[in-house]
TrEMBL record:
This is Tubulin-specific chaperone D. One of its GO terms (biological process) is microtubule cytoskeleton organization. Pfam families: ARM_TBCD, ARM_TBCD_2nd, TFCD_C. The keyword Chaperone applies. The keyword Thylakoid does not apply. Keywords: Chaperone. One of its GO terms (molecular function) is beta-tubulin binding. Residues 962-1099 form the Tubulin-folding cofactor D C-terminal domain. Residues 440-578 form the Tubulin-folding cofactor D ARM repeats domain.
């Protein structure tokens, strides 16, 4: 189960009432309570809205499927739901011919299909046995023949009609539901001969069956047999309902009197014999017959089985012998065949034991041998059925036989595949590595036969559930179940197996809690294998706590939680602090692996030191924790161990000693386990040190330094080599040019950071056994950190950065500059075009991490301080000469370094502004500059929120420039940039002094960045501030250009609503847009600005007519004045001068179209002349056709005659094109 914050089934549980209401509403609309006769006016009126009605069925199906995790929530409403669908279904069954005649219109069949699909969904969620009982009513036997007749009519139609659409309107759901309904009607007490009527006649074809039937058999029975024979061999769900129909039919008393059961059994035997010999009709024939045998053996009474048992048994034994035949047909050895054979064999053996027949003992022994041989089958379904069969039949054994089977079969094989090692007795008893090696490593070495483990543990679980396990053998059962709860196999490629074994163990322990009393569990004696100070119940409880908190599979965590809840509920007095435990390890709390490891485990460890703290630590130290094959699991477990182990000094000390000893026992090639252990050490040291710093009254006599002063810790942790004699000399092996593995880099850097931060500048702990290191010896660790910084993995880079920072903390101030200069030189010696994130990201992060270690006046030479050099280097890395990844890393370093220490320089501001305007495009990746813009948004927001210099009046202009630029990005076309900018603005909006922006709206309530309200907010901001042009610079990219159509529609609608009837807003927007199309702007802004400008003019020309001075406006700034329109025309002409770019030409046409609608004749004539020139010169045929369309729509009917009948897509150099253009000029009165 994937990690999720809110589990789907929890959502269903909480929202079930709403789902029920939706289902009820959909069913009420589809199938109203009032009956509508087919063909009536009311029914036809409903069918006119069929398209709307049909959409309700899928919605109902989706809501029903949501209840698969909580089917019982449907129980109070099932009767009402089924009743609604049943009434419609009865109507269709009673009018089959009319349904067929209406098939061409797909009306009646659509409702029939919807009804059957809904019933099938209910069967799938709640089980067919529950639904079919609600489907049947008191006098339903009268529907037997109508259902048969409807199946005949519709089935014949399906076969006779060549149209493939028939298979869609009459699908398998209809056949499944109607056959299931027929099987329920077979329980009617009336004789079938008395139910038959003369109203329904059967043709000879309806009565054809492969069986030799008696003459006195009613035709209705023959028809039922024909249907069963037809559908018992199909691959769909109809086979299940047809099998049930045939079983109930032959077991009816009136049919048994006619000998139908014997006839059908003989017929089935012949089919199985033919299938074994290789002669079969379809692949599913054998499956259908075996399903019939299984149902027959289960439902038949003892009198019937006295004669039927042996024929069925012969068939099953013949198939079993065929399983071992390598030459046999694979169909006869499929998982489904094995499953049905086991079910039939189990039922026969169980009934033979109850009947106490002469051969019952031999039958049971043969059955047990067969079931046990299939416990290792490759198919999970076979193992599940075989294990359940053993559990059921052993229930009837006496104690002596049970012990014989358990010891001779299960325990013998289990013991041979399992090498015992004692479980963890007590963590506090591990005083040396030999004791630790005995108890802390894996409790057992398991065999590789995962399938055998799964089958055997499931068998133990079923035997426990049936109380087939004697009290004297419970101890061995718990041993097996506990071992299975820890079972895990990992292949060399990292693939894990064994989750099904652990799941089976959870089931077995859950069954143990239900079927055995507390007194019985207390009476179990320890066999010397499990060493524990508590009872058997406490052993089980602690094992389940570990599985619930740390298992890698969500279903197993929940299964262990459910078993634990059952244990505490039924044996509450035997579990320490059971009430507290059951409230913490809940079914929902352990659904998320992160929550289970980080929160649930921590709360459990605080219940008591013994046994729960030890249980949690043991789980974190094992394969589910820091020794897991999954790196994310190891890191999460290490972090959890850090929180768990710092409650007291004794816990921290004990945990570190355990980790120290465990590190010594890890084989040399187990890099993953060593990685987890070292990270655990780092987390424990970090957390304990932080706890000491946060504590108001720390215990001065006990500190993390007291533990770290032990030489064994220094050697084992800092070097990763527990046998190194000198912690500093051992670094020589790690400074060679041979690359060290990524896991080692990551772990060692984390340990170095933790140790250095914990010791700070107190170097007294390095005395005694280890001499104090000098600068040259520190270089060994610094060299390790430097090489890790150049690693390609981001996690290693981040860890190396912090390790380098921590190491510099231990150096005196005068020595730190030497290391920093080395990092800067490492960056500068690489050419800008070769600077990649893989090579330099770690060093760039390091500059930001160590910025605070240098004083602002600490000189680095050349008149610069070390802080100035860091800022200069970081700012240089944000220039356009560098790659996108490096720019992002440099911005993050600026944020953590200079800005994080409230250092602000003008060069940093300029770098942020440049990055906010980074629109670098890659031919393969597209807008790669968007990553830089998003990082710059975060950096600018951080600066606005924390840097004191930007909050002063002297720097208000700088602050406002950043705000306006972020607002512009909050309206641009790229969704992720727009969302990031809006999120950042919401964080800082109320913290900013916006007094200089009149009536500025609040953006904190805006969440959706694709709505009219969102864009209207920023239009209001642009109208209220003097830098509105900057905001519209981003807005136009959403309202035109290559933005999504839905976004264009939304932004343009917001712009129209914003302008409304206000001439001042219209004029302000027009002037801003005109400024955006100037030559100094980039085409990225000019093209969409042109399109938006044309749109705004087109939408607001009526505003000009309401002007009193129109058309004699003399103000040059008036958007409708001659001077303004002529200036706009000149700018547009210059915009696409000698350009063949289709996007630029189309944008220019938007403005030309708007200018044609102006009442200024001079401008209009100039535009027409320009368009004619473009018609005669542009090589782009698509643009010429658009120009022709524009001219035809804008000109009068007489002027437009010169446009019609001309192929404007011909070449511009064609003689015909020239004549057409000259003619058009003449018509318009234009001259060359």
């Amino acid at each position: 189960m994937a990690e999720v914050d809110v589990e789907e089934d929890v959502k269903v549980q909480k929202g079930s009432l709403g789902y029920i209401k939706d289902i009820d509403g959909a069913l009420s609309a589809l199938f109203p309570s009032s009956s509508l006769a087919l063909g009536s006016q009311a029914c036809l009126k409903r069918h006119q809205n069929l398209e709307r009605e049909e959409s309700r069925a899928p919605r109902a199906l989706v809501k029903i499927d949501e209840f698969q995790g909580w089917p019982q929530l449907l129980d109070p409403h099932l009767a009402k739901f089924v009743s609604r669908v049943r009434s419609a279904l009865v109507q269709f069954v009673q009018h089959p011919k009319q349904v067929r005649n209406n098939a061409e219109s797909n009306n009646s069949f659509s409702y029939l299909h919807a009804a059957c699909k809904i019933l099938y969904s209910l069967c799938k969620v709640r089980g067919y046995k529950v639904i079919v009982q609600l489907l049947s009513q008191e006098h339903d036997h009268e529907l037997l023949e109508p259902i048969l007749y409807a199946l005949k009519i519709w089935t014949v139609s399906l076969d006779a009609n060549d149209d493939p659409a028939w298979s869609d309107v009459f699908g398998w759901e209809e056949r499944y539901i109607l056959l299931l309904w027929l099987s329920q009607l077979m329980l009617a007490p009336h004789d079938l001969a008395s139910i038959a009527s003369l109203e329904f006649a059967y043709s000879p074809k309806d009565l054809e069956t492969p069986m030799v039937l008696p003459e006195e058999l009613p035709d209705i029975v023959r028809n039922l047999l024909m249907l069963s024979d037809t559908y018992i061999s199909v691959s769909g769900k109809e086979r299940e309902s047809a099998t049930l129909l045939l079983t109930r039919l032959v077991l009816r008393p009136d049919m048994q009197r006619l000998g139908l059961d014997k006839i059908v059994i003989d017929w089935a035997r012949v089919i199985i014999i033919n299938c074994i010999s290789g002669d079969r009709e379809t692949d599913y024939t054998l499956v259908g017959i075996l399903s019939f045998f299984a149902g027959f053996a289960k439902r038949a009474d003892d009198r019937t089985l006295t004669w039927a048992m042996q024929p069925i048994l012969d068939c099953i034994q013949g198939l079993i012998m065929n399983f071992e035949n390598p030459q046999a047909d694979p169909t006869t050895k499929s998982a489904m065949v094995k499953k049905l054979s086991i079910k039939t064999y189990r039922t026969l053996a169980e009934k033979a034991l109850r009947m106490k027949t002469v051969a019952s003992d031999d039958l049971v022994n043969e059955a047990f041998d067969h079931f046990y041989s299939l416990l290792s089958d490759a198919d999970t379904t076979v193992r599940l059925v075989a294990s359940k069969a053993i559990g059921v039949i052993t229930k009837s054994f006496d104690t002596q036989n049970k012990l014989y089977l358990l010891n001779s079969f299960i325990w013998e094989d289990f013991d041979s595949s399992f090498q015992w090692r004692p479980f963890m007795e007590s963590l506090s008893s591990y005083q040396d590595l030999n004791t630790l090696e005995r108890g802390l490593l894996e409790t057992a070495q398991y065999a590789d036969n995962t399938t055998w483990w799964h089958g055997t543990i499931m068998t133990i679980g079923h035997m426990v559930y049936q109380r087939s396990i004697p009290i004297s053998w419970l101890h061995s059962s718990v041993i097996m179940l506990s071992a299975a709860l820890r079972y895990n196999r990992v292949t060399p490629l990292g693939a894990a197996s064994g989750s099904n074994v652990r799941d089976a163990a959870c089931y077995g322990l859950w069954a143990l809690s239900r079927k055995y009393s507390t007194k019985e569990l207390y009476s179990v004696q320890d066999g010397g294998v499990i060493i524990t100070p508590g009872s058997l119940v406490m052993i089980i409880a602690t094992q389940l706590v570990q599985a619930a908190c740390f298992d890698l599979v969500g279903n197993i965590r929940r299964g262990a939680s459910a078993a634990l809840q059952e244990f505490i509920g039924r044996h509450s007095d035997a579990v320490d602090s059971g009430i507290d435990l059951v409230q913490i390890v809940t079914y929902d709390a352990v659904a998320s692996d992160k929550k289970a490891t980080m929160q649930v485990a921590l709360r459990v460890s605080r219940i008591s030191f013994e046994p729960y703290w030890r249980t949690i630590v043991e789980g974190l130290l094992g394969w589910r924790g820091i020794q897991s094959h999954d790196e994310n699991v190891r890191l999460r477990a290490a972090q959890s161990l850090g929180f768990v182990s710092v409650n007291t000094y004794a816990q921290t000390e004990e945990t570190l000693f355990l980790l120290n000893g465990l590190l010594a026992l890890i084989p040399e090639k187990e890099d993953a386990k060593r990685h987890g252990i070292l990270n655990a050490v780092a987390c424990v040291v970090k957390t304990r040190h932080q706890r000491t710093l946060d504590c108001e009254n720390p215990d001065s006599s006990k500190d993390i330094k007291d533990i770290l002063s032990e030489p064994s810790f220094q050697v084992a942790y800092v070097t990763g080599n527990p046998h190194a004699p000198d912690v500093w000399n051992s670094t020589a092996s790690y400074t060679s040019p041979i690359p060290i593995k990524r896991l080692f880099y990551h772990a060692i850097c984390n340990v170095i950071e933790a140790f250095c931060d914990a010791t700070c500048c107190d170097m007294t702990i390095w005395t005694n056994h280890c001499r104090r290191p000098d600068d040259s010896e520190f270089d060994g660790f610094l060299d390790l950190a430097n090489r890790a910084m150049g690693h390609s993995d981001p996690q290693v880079q981040a860890a190396a950065t912090q390790a380098g920072r921590a190491l510099l903390t231990l150096l005196p101030e005068e020595s730190r500059g030497r290391i920093l200069d080395r990092w800067i030189t490492e960056i500068q010696k690489v050419k800008p075009e070769q600077r990649t994130s893989v090579r330099l990201a770690g060093f760039v992060q390091g500059l930001g991490a160590v910025f605070a270690l240098f004083k602002h006046d600490q000189s680095a030479g050349n008149g610069l301080s070390w802080q100035d050099r860091i800022v200069q280097t970081l700012v240089d890395l944000t220039s356009n000469a560098h790659q996108t990844e490096i720019k992002c890393v440099a911005l993050r370093s600026i944020r953590t370094g200079p800005l994080g220490t409230d250092v602000f320089q003008m060069s940093i501001f300029e770098a942020m502004v440049d990055c906010l305007n980074d629109y670098t495009n890659d031919s393969r990746l597209g807008d790669v500059g968007s990553e830089v813009r998003m990082e710059a948004i975060s950096t600018a927001t951080f600066a606005l929120r924390t840097v004191h210099a930007l909050r002063t009046k002297a720097n208000r202009a700088l602050r406002n420039m950043l705000i306006y630029r972020v607002c512009s990005l909050a309206t641009e076309s790229l969704d992720k940039v727009r969302f990031r900018a809006a999120t950042c603005l919401q964080e800082i909006w109320n913290k900013l002094d916006l007094s200089n922006i009149a009536s500025c709206p609040d953006v904190q309530g805006i969440i959706d960045t694709k709505t009219d309200e969102y864009f209207t907010t920023f239009l209001r901001i642009s109208s209220s501030c003097p830098e509105g042009r900057e905001i519209l610079r981003g807005y136009v990219t959403s309202a035109g250009g290559t933005a999504a159509e839905s976004l264009i529609a939304t932004t343009r609608a917001a712009l129209s609503n914003h302008i409304g009837d206000s001439y001042d807003k219209f004029s302000r927007v027009i002037h801003t847009l005109k400024n955006l199309i100037g030559p100094e702007a980039s085409d990225r802004v000019r093209v969409p600005a042109m399109e938006v400008l044309g749109f705004v003019y087109d939408q607001n020309y009526d505003m000009a007519h309401r002007r009193n001075d129109f058309p004699n406006a003399v103000d040059a700034n008036d958007p409708f004045s001659h001077s303004f329109l002529h200036s706009l025309f000149a700018d547009t002409t210059a915009f696409h001068y000698r350009s063949t770019d289709a996007r630029k030409l189309e944008a220019a046409l938007c403005v030309y179209t708007a200018l044609l609608s102006a009442r200024d004749n001079a401008v209009r004539k100039a535009v027409l002349n320009k368009l004619c020139n473009m018609l005669g010169s542009l090589p782009v045929a698509r643009i010429r056709n658009q120009i022709a369309d524009i001219l035809y729509m804008e000109l009068s009917e007489e002027e437009g005659e010169g446009i019609l009948g001309v192929n404007w897509g011909m070449s511009a150099k064609d003689q015909g094109m020239r004549k057409a253009v000259e003619g058009l000029r003449g018509t318009l009165g234009l001259h060359m």
